[in-house]
Design a protein that fits this description.
Radius of gyration of chain B: 23 Å
Number of strands of chain A: 10
Strand content of chain A: 15-25%
Strand order of the largest sheet of chain A: 6-7-8-3-9-10
Oligomer: heterodimer
Distance between the termini of chain B: 52 Å
Radius of gyration of chain A: 20 Å
Strand content of chain B: under 5%
Number of helices of chain A: 10
Helix content of chain B: over 70%
Shape of chain A: globular
Largest sheet of chain A: 6 strands, mixed
Order of helices and strands of chain B: HHHHHHHHHH
Largest interface: A-B, 29 and 18 residues
Structural class of chain A: alpha/beta
Chain lengths: 277, 290
């Protein structure tokens, strides 16, 4: 596992970030700083706001309060053109790959190039083939449609598409969810190789502990707001994989060891309540 | 991501609540409607802004034009033909009672040119294309493809909405002309071959009641209808709720809302275009004939 440079400047700064949808608060007072070159894993149970945090970083979700700074600029204060320019410096690997159904694999991978560098078809093909090789897919898939690919192949095509613009930051949203253990390991290995080959900062949202421990320099654990008291912080843990293992917080140990604990009691109470009603 | 607040009625008890609750619920519905209307207006303005700022690629425009225009031609032509024939069937008995059956051509043609042609083409387009566009864009929203577009620095409105809107706007006049033509042909064929109306008189009366303005009248209406279908359907797709149910609802509401707006617009456009006609040609015999 490679580590980030200790004194590297933060490329992403999140300051007292709050996100709400209607009356539902999802993120509360999140403050994080991600140095350039670091691989950060954000873990936490479903519904704790990991994906929302990732989408807020790239400006797909607007913060209700607080801000995200990328390379010194506040994302929520950028105009359309500036935001477009900044987004080309990111690569986003979506949970279900989010490949465009109406396009072939080749068109999907080269989409960002066609969008931002319309001239230079030959160089597009060259870059596309290089990225395809990087994620270990044969050229035979280029003419296929996303619907014809397996889950693991779709994820790899998604990664190739995210890499095509040589991004400075890679955002992964649950990269191993829904994959078999072997394919999960392949994706983990690809993330490690990608970082070795390209000097990128990576933020990986996952609830797969193996991924977090294998790939990340630093792990941050979020907790759902619905389970926290008003004064409690949403970040339960921030440290290395080793420190996570040694954590004494019951909620952290429960998550990393996959124990239902008090959730079982809660479930039983709910079902009893349902029977009474 | 939708930021709309969902208003749900709160259960209250007591006589006063029984009086207040319906008003509160009605207020919530009205607020929701205004919110949607405002949102839709902003969406339309963004679409127009992107239309002016950057034209869509030829590839994307041609693909949408093919799907929206070429693929709709057969169904528009078929329904146009049958509507023309139905008009003949429905009007024949009344006209025959007054011995005016040779005037049927004028009535059928004028109705097709001014009303049924544009409304029929728009209805078919809303049903065939509007629902499909809402379902496609809705699926793209649900499967994060629209977020993926944004994350790669592409504007989803410029990339997805503008070519669809432009295709609806540019091709609906052709579909309207096709519906009108087939309606005229269908009506004439039914009258001449099945109702044995004299060809010469039918043809002469057909020409008397229709002029170039009537064709323009239908085409002008159709442009507004096309814009409505493009905007409403894309808006519904973009604001699709999660899951298969959300996509289904988006497709249904795209058709229903487009159709309602088309019918309301039809009334106002008819009044406006009639006023323009009487202003431009105040002494026209068509105007004097009613």
């Amino acid at each position: 596992m490679a580590t980030s440079k200790p004194n590297a400047e933060p490329i992403i700064e999140i300051n007292e970030l709050n996100v709400s949808f209607g009356r539902q608060d999802v993120l509360r007072d999140i403050s994080l700083s991600v140095p350039a070159g670091q691989t950060l894993a954000i873990i936490g149970e479903s519904g704790c706001g990991k994906t929302v945090l990732l989408k807020t970083i790239i400006g797909l979700v607007r913060p209700t309060k607080g801000y995200v700074k990328f390379d010194g600029q506040r994302i929520d204060q950028l105009n359309d053109q500036q935001l477009t320019r900044q987004r080309t410096r990111f690569g986003f690997v979506f949970q279900n790959a989010a490949l465009f159904d109406s396009m072939t694999v080749a068109e999907n991978i080269s989409f960002p190039l066609r969008q931002h560098r319309p001239d230079g078809r030959a160089s597009h093909d060259e870059a596309m083939l290089a990225r395809l090789a990087e994620v270990g897919l044969p050229t035979a898939v280029l003419r296929k449609r996303p619907a014809e690919l397996s889950g693991g192949m779709r994820k790899r095509v998604g990664l190739a598409r995210a890499l095509i613009m040589n991004p400075e930051v890679l955002l992964y949203d649950e990269p191993t969810t829904g994959l078999d253990p072997i394919m999960s390991d392949v994706i983990n290995e690809l993330m490690i190789r990608t970082r070795k080959k390209n000097p990128v900062t990576s933020i990986i949202v996952t609830h797969d502990m193996k991924t977090a421990q294998q790939v990340a320099d630093r792990i941050v654990m979020l907790y759902p707001l619905t389970r926290l008291a008003d004064e409690e912080g949403q970040i339960l843990f921030d440290g290395s994989a080793h420190e996570l293992e040694c954590s004494k917080d019951r909620r952290v140990t429960q998550f990393i060891h996959g124990e239902a604990g008090d959730r079982l009691m809660e479930m039983n109470e709910n079902s009893e309540e349902g029977q009474v009603v | 991501m939708s930021t709309g607040i969902e208003y749900s009625p709160r259960p209250r008890r007591g006589v006063l609540s029984a009086l207040i609750d319906p008003m509160v619920d009605l207020g919530a519905v009205v607020l929701g409607m205004f919110e949607t209307l405002g949102d839709m207006t902003l969406f339309a303005m963004q679409t127009l802004r992107w239309l002016v700022a950057r034209l869509p690629s030829k590839e994307s425009l041609y693909t949408n034009m093919y799907q929206i225009g070429v693929m709709s031609l057969p169904v528009v032509a078929l329904t146009g033909t049958f509507i023309g024939m139905v008009l003949a069937v429905q009007s024949y008995t009344q006209f025959r009672a007054f011995g005016l059956e040779t005037q049927l051509g004028g009535v059928i043609n004028r109705t097709m040119f001014r009303e049924l042609g544009p409304v029929l083409a728009a209805t078919m387009l809303a049903g065939r294309v509007g629902s499909a566009m809402a379902a496609e864009l809705g699926t793209m929203r649900v499967t994060e493809q629209i977020d993926a577009l944004s994350s790669m620095g592409a504007n989803p409105i410029q990339y997805l909405v503008v070519p669809r809107f432009l295709s609806c706007l540019l091709l609906i006049p052709s579909l309207t002309i096709m519906a009108v033509f087939m309606g005229v042909v269908g009506g004439a064929a039914y009258c001449v071959f099945l109702l044995d109306i004299d060809v010469h008189h039918y043809s002469a009366n057909s020409k008397t009641y229709v002029e170039n303005w009537d064709l323009l009248y239908g085409v002008i209406k159709s442009v507004f209808f096309g814009a409505t279908i493009g905007l409403v359907s894309c808006y519904r797709g973009f604001h699709c709720k999660a899951g298969a149910e959300g996509v289904g609802q988006a497709a249904t509401s795209a058709f229903v809302q487009s159709f309602v707006v088309i019918i309301v617009l039809d009334l106002f456009l008819s009044i406006m275009l009639d006023n323009i006609y009487s202003y431009l040609w105040p002494t026209s015999p068509m105007l004097l004939n009613g």
